[in-house]
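Chapter summary example.
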Amino acid sequence: MRRRVSLVLLALAVFFGALAPVLRWYAFPRLAKIPPSQYQEMVLEAKPATLLRYDTMQAEQVDKVTIVQTLKGNVEESQRIERDAGRDVVVWDSLSYVQGPDGAMVSQIPERYVFDAHTQAPVHATGESVDGDAVRREGIEFKFPFLTEQRDYEYFDAQTRTSAPIHYKGTRTFRGLEVYYFEQTIPWTKVAYPKKMPLPGIDATTLEKQTGTSRWYTTKRMFWVEPVTGAPVNGEEIHTEELRGGSLLGGRDKVTAFSGHVKMREDYVDHTVALVSANRTTVLLLVSYLPWGFTALGLLLLALSLCLEARSRRPEGRPPLRPEPAPVSA
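The structure predicted for these 330 residues follows.
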């Protein structure tokens, strides 16, 4: 009986021991993925800010500039690209909508970001674009990979249409979560005008060619990233734009178009932290809790199996000898 039980325990030990690496190295890459239908909205604010009034071409100090950023999963495009790519692909149609303190539009820039559902690496496909211009991204954007490492990454900048390193600056604590802090600085760079701007009667796509006035931009980008999920729980930018030269400025060398410290609104920070905390537990089940738990359980079952096997093989003690019968006297 002991031997049968030990064989059952041994089989269970082998099963759980084999299941641990399967969960970590096979199931995790196939289950930890960004859903193709995800929808996300984020509101960021710069309070106060400097903003250009295009009717007077004068920069003014304003109480607040709001940036509404939406990410919408395009399931149909994901399925179309997956047929050629041979892997799970996510297509995000995003929009950055900038509005002044009166709610009027300052600019809006649409993007289409195509990436691998697990690694977040860009997938190059028809339709990949920023503000209607075709681009070929190198590096990540919006989200970091699952199990983010303590190293620098290439991060795509939509304004310059180029990628540059975003540097790991250390581990910090944010709202009770251990996070990795990343920082990227884009130096002054000449960039294109957004195609939708509050310029009545002026085509923004030919604005520089018509007036000789160019648009320049610099930013310091900061992310606090939860490393298990790779999701930023907070993001900020110290952002400045200028118009330089040309007839649009009336003889001036340059004028500030926008300047401000852009931060996520507090209610969106709270919502993001709660969402990431819940998803973090799910990812940890696949990469840590279950694999290590099954490994420990397998070792325990193996030890019990060996113990029972050893006891079943132990020789039984000799039965006690019967005493010699006493002689019977007549």
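To summarize the output: Residues 168 and 220 are 14 Å apart (CA to CA).
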